[in-house]
Amino acid sequence: MKNILQRWILYLLSVVAIFTSTAAGAFQPRGQWLLEKLPAYPGGVYTETLYNTGTGLDQELPTKSKPEPRPTYSYMQLVRQTNLADFYRYCAKLDRLGWRQTFFNRIEKNVYAAYESGQKRVYFYYNGGSGVARVIDDCCNSASLDAFSADETEDDFAPAVYQFSYPYKDSLHSDPALFHGNGMLYVIRLSDGSLIVIDGGSLYQTSLANIDEFRAFLYRITDQKPGSRLRVALWYGTHLHGDHNAFFQKFMRLYHEEVTVERFAFNYQANEVLHTNAYVKRLRNHIAKFYPDAAYVKVRPGYRFQLRDADCQVLYCHEDFVDPADASWTADNANDASAVLRVTIRDKRFLLLGDAGLIAEDVLLKNFTKQTLCADVLQAAHHLYNDLHRLYPVVAPSYVFCPQSGRRAAEQPLDAYLTLRQLVPADRFCFADENIVYGFLPDHDIMTMEMIPVNCTAYDGSPLTEHGEQEPPENEDEPLS
């Protein structure tokens, strides 16, 4: 019923937009439309080039030494000097041409939509603050956007959000062959016992003991016997750095026969935009090998999906920072390409920033107000390296998840820690190095903190791959020694 009502509202807005823009003498678009598979966007000024948003599960372009199938790249054309009427005219145009709407969302002054026709898919959105529309040939997904959600719920478990704990480098753990200063891993338990896993740890956090401890932890929180089948409803990757996926890669390789992963969601940049690494290639190989039937969506800004108790809202991806004048990406790191995710469970909000930096902070503050950005629990960005001193007061969290050593944060000290300490009492910081998994069980009125002991160890030198190859921690971006 909700979807039918939403569709009628969109239809009426589209009709009003057509007549309003016609009466106002809306000018025709300027420039050349370059997305040949998609109908042209009506109005505004087109960029002269396209931005390559990357592939999904496909590997990058083949090399001469090892030919591979050609990947499916997803391109975006930007339109400046446009308006909301043009956006709704595009919706109406797609409707007239027989395209099916699969998604619609509005967040403050920003509007997002997706349509499909046969094998063709388009995702487009309009930022009201800048007057810019972004139109994406959304060809990477294995699942339709409206089929990615699963909103049926069961009440066998209280939903909870957990921050997994493993060793980090600090003054007491300084051996660079055994410890690393990055890595983060979050788990959301849904009320039917299925799980959402977000990111994973660094190479130096993937000792076999730690992998086994994570396995035991998942069995514990789902009240299952070891060896029974665990259900991961979704693995969500914030960005492509190895310290955010190496741990889960190794876990998949070792325990894929005990773990079902139903969905994958990430939005990694193209190699031509920002050099990727071997971790990304191996992640895609693992998905193809161990979970070939899993659904995949390349998440975009504004995309919203429901997984049982969890209302998941993507607030920012790398497409948001692409220059509307020339379709270029001018940042020099993948941290600001983190796909920022806000998860709402029983009216309690969790804001997961990944490694977002000053660029992402600037875009988030331009696009949204406190109404959208406020959260009960905040994941401190980039292991407390990035001091998002303008964003954090707007978020105004009650608790902070810190994927970092508490000792390191206090001893250096990290500027972001000092900023957050002005907002949040010390006893409401949850550090990930204390051999305690901090969990929050949200309710409509309260949140209950749960603490689960784990026993994780220094790195044991065990290989990431089944063939024993060992790689350095590429692009893990640890700026401080």
> Low-confidence segments, ≥5 residues, pLDDT <50?
18-25
What is the average of the pLDDT values? Answer: 91
In percent, how much strand structure appears in the residues?
A: 15-25%
End-to-end Cα distance, whole Å, is: 55 Å
Structural class: alpha/beta
Number of E strands:
23
- Tell me the radius of gyration: 22 Å
Helix content: 10-25%
Instruction: Characterize the main sheet.
Output: 9 strands, mixed
Shape: globular
Helix run count: 10
Overview of this protein structure:
- There is one protein chain.
- By secondary structure, this protein is α/β, with parallel strands linked by helices.
- 22% of the residues lie in helices and 25% in strands.
- It has helices at 2-23, 84-96, 208-221, 246-255, 278-290, 358-367, 370-373, 391-395, 406-411, 415-421, and strands spanning 45-46, 51-52, 75-80, 100-107, 110-117, 120-127, 132-137, 160-163, 184-189, 195-200, 230-236, 259-261, 263-265, 295-297, 304-307, 310-316, 340-345, 348-352, 377-379, 399-402, 429-431, 436-442, 447-453.
- Strands 8, 9, 10, 11, 12, 13, 14, 22 and 23 form a nine-stranded mixed sheet that branches.
- The chain is globular, with a radius of gyration of 22 Å.
- The chain starts with a helix and ends in a 28-residue tail after the last strand.
- The model is unreliable at 18-25 (pLDDT under 50).
